[in-house]
Amino acid sequence: MPIYAPRPLDAVLTELKYFGVPLSYEEPTWLSPDDVAPLVNFPDPRNQRLNPNVIGPAPASLLLQFQVDAATKMHLRTPIDQLLRDVVARHNAAGNPGEFRVIDLGRGQGYSIVPVAAKSNGQMVSARSPLDVRITLETKERTALESFNALTVAVSQASGMPIVAFEMAMGGVISENHVEPVYKFGANNEVAREVLTRLLYQVFPQKMAWRLYYQPRNLQPPQSAVSPLGQRGRGGQASGPIGPAGGGFHALSLVPVSREIDRSQMTPDGRGRRITGVMWPNWPSGGPQ
Length: 289
Hints:
With about 290 residues, the chain is of the alpha+beta class. The chain has helices at about 10-15, 80-95, 145-160, 170, 190-205; strands at about 1-5, 25, 35-40, 55, 60-65, 100-105, 110-120, 125, 135-145, 165, 180-190, 210-215, 250-255, 260, 275. It has a domain at about 1-130 and about 210-275.
């Protein structure tokens, strides 16, 4: 399955989203103009109405190959961890924006594709996700939204990178009597990714994944300097700061995990499929199994 998208690894996870495994994706700070492009150059025709100065990761190509059970069409024949590592290796070898690796979150909590390098001044340099930092949170009772906000503030302070959190799912966590519950939650010099995973387990009975995108804000490529995208999706030449000095930020959002349960009514365009949310075993006690 050929993929051509601004975030090809994220697009891979979208293709695999109905297999019931939490699959997360995290981006580095894009430091090079080679790795970004105006959104008007992207394949989505809806972007043609956008300001040409609005930018995002440059589109790139990637091949996704996997087999499913011939009878049900709903179960992978390749272990998903191996599938992810194979596709990440192809991404890195192709010279697409950023280099990544796959992290096993353990105890059935799924996997995250995280950055290890990004281009800067024409060379690949070490890079990391903001969720790699260690954070400490005072242990006390908070609502889900308050805990989520405290976590993102701590990550922003420790990483030096602003984090914009899309909190709608957190704000929707309420009890049967329509009172927002509180949770005793904290962290002591722990990796932020592990803290986030623990918070999501504590708050949601359904398994959750996340997306952490980097959005450059202040790159202003003149429209006349924008060149057509090449085969590997490189955008037009541009100048100006696109890292923290340029006002960029990371955006964190949550993704509910689902599993496909019936393809009998599915049309060729994917409509009519039946899916169900994937719940934690033994929630809310005992921890992820």
